[in-house]
Amino acid sequence: MIIAGEGRLAGRHLTILGMGYSARALARLALAEGAHVSATTRDATKAEALRREGIDILAPAQTGALALDAMDDTTDLLVSAPPGPEGCPAYELAARALANAGRLGWIGYFSSTAVYGDCGGEWIDESRPPAPRSPDAKARLIAEDIWQEAARRHGAACDILRISGIYGPGRNHLAALRAGGLHVVDKPGQVFNRIHRDDIAGATLAAMLSLAAGERLINLADGNPCSSVDLLCGLADMLGLPLPVVVPYDPAALSPGMAAFFAESRRLRNDRMLALPGFVMCYPDWRAGYRAILAEE
């Protein structure tokens, strides 16, 4: 949590490449802080809704890239778009316009804690050397390098925000549990962190408000990793629903994506995130986060 609405971003122009779930929450905080916000999105319906919220939509020119003057006034740039197989399509979209962004002072990149690979359940922090295993994690590491280099060329601060499992309103396990028939995989020793969407937005805003010279790596994660069994059975108990069926881990019975998820285990420290000036987590564990989601319902 960071209290918004004090005008601390007045005079700043935040451009967001890829208006995803968490980036949209940040956009609302930035608007409340007095920033001018622009964004890209491929969804026409979403674009219209964003305009109604006061967000300008940047549309690619006929070349497929942003117009040369699209980012002339941008002071802050958040990259929330997913990477491609060999890098970052968002950089290809913005590279020409970025060259003219003379006011740019900060670049933030939404990466993933998957870049650490399998850590055998050990507690790790940002000093852990990346060892990505999945294609997406490898691409995110390449994209991190691309945006760090872009920040160096501009003399801008750069925050690489490595995000753990995201949840929040409209993106959670409630519907699956209420539908019944859910199976949860039990792999002894496998744990993971998560983070509520609003804490991602709050931590990102805090980073924007406390620019550091050069580059920072920051894990965005709760401090309470747990297993899938603990999470889903605990949530079912919170809802007063029957417990999901627990099945033993069998990689042959899982989709490739789920098999890749269960092949890795790590416990993430979040000390750097908690040290951001003015930032306090709203939801330091899944119980606090889901109580808030249920209260909103």
TrEMBL record:
Limits of the NAD-dependent epimerase/dehydratase domain: 109-212
Keyword NAD: yes
InterPro entries: Epimerase_deHydtase, NAD(P)-bd_dom_sf
Pfam families: Epimerase
Keyword entries, A-Z: NAD
Name of the protein: Nucleoside-diphosphate-sugar epimerase
Species this protein is from: Pontibaca methylaminivorans
Lineage of source species: Bacteria, Pseudomonadati, Pseudomonadota, Alphaproteobacteria, Rhodobacterales
